[in-house]
Amino acid sequence: MKLGVFTPLLSQMPFADVLAKLKGMGISTVELGTGNYPGGAHCNLSMLENKAELKVFKDTIDEYGFTISALSCHGNPLHPNPEIGDAMSEVNRKTILLAAELGVSTVVDFSGCPGDQVGAKAPNWVTCPWPPEYLDVLKWQWDEVVTPYWVKRGAFAADHGVKIAIEMHPGFVAYSPETMLKLRAIAGPSIGCNYDPSHMFWQGIDPIGAIRVLGDAIFHVHAKDTQMYPSNLVKTGVLDTKLYTEERDRGWIFRTCGYGHGAEWWKEFVSTLRMFGYDGVLSIEHEDSLLSPEEGLTKAAAFLNEIVIKQDAVAAWWV
């Protein structure tokens, strides 16, 4: 297993400087944003039409000895406002094309969330079965919007030799192992998941147990932690809509790996991923509001490198 970094946390730095910095930390794999929510500071989709720009990009990757674990375009391609949804869907389409051009096998995105009917202005994330009209909305979303879009987009990705890793994230239709596998069953084997355990923790889903449910549907993995605050959870519940920067009053916040759960937990997480066939990249994602990007990256890399290196050594010994 290898350690990588999702580079938006370093978006203020030139790409070559990012690679030099990460190389100095013993990291040689990156996940790059191409647009939508992550932005595209280090991987511009204009390279599809600009061969000179594409060559410079490839040469830079090769010069520093890096590989790309995934291209990421997290967005809401099902947004009911066509100006938003169509634009985000187009970023996804172009990202698939660029991944094929670069020989990158995985594109990361969200599943998206439609509105409640044709002509809706905003997404409508259904979280309960009653009153019964919510189930009517949910059925309409899956039948009329989710299924047609992802069947077509899954086939498009497969035609280009690319897999789409959907990050299970509340607010979108695929947010749990069950909803993720529902989408995969509909759209086909080119659709799987970008597994981020931080989103499982706060939903009350055991992230290690969920690996056993997802199995070979795991295409890519984010390394991010969550810390729960029971003294606040009794009043907020897990569906806490306060800003992430209101740490004192939230029921949970995202943390750098090791700050929510210790080394023993992460060792079992890595071991279970391997047990169920994933031996790819752990891509560090920084969203810890209590640590700067520099501190969060440095601490996460040191913490996870210790775990990954030791487990690799044990695996090599047994072989």
Automatic annotation (TrEMBL):
GO MF annotations in UniProt: isomerase activity
Domain of life the protein comes from: Bacteria
Keyword terms: Isomerase
Every Xylose isomerase-like TIM barrel domain range: 20-306
Keyword set includes Isomerase: yes
Keyword Nucleus in record: no
Gene3D superfamilies recorded: Divalent-metal-dependent TIM barrel enzymes
PANTHER family: HYDROXYPYRUVATE ISOMERASE (PTHR12110), XYLOSE ISOMERASE-LIKE TIM BARREL DOMAIN-CONTAINING PROTEIN (PTHR12110:SF21)
The protein, known as: Sugar phosphate isomerase/epimerase
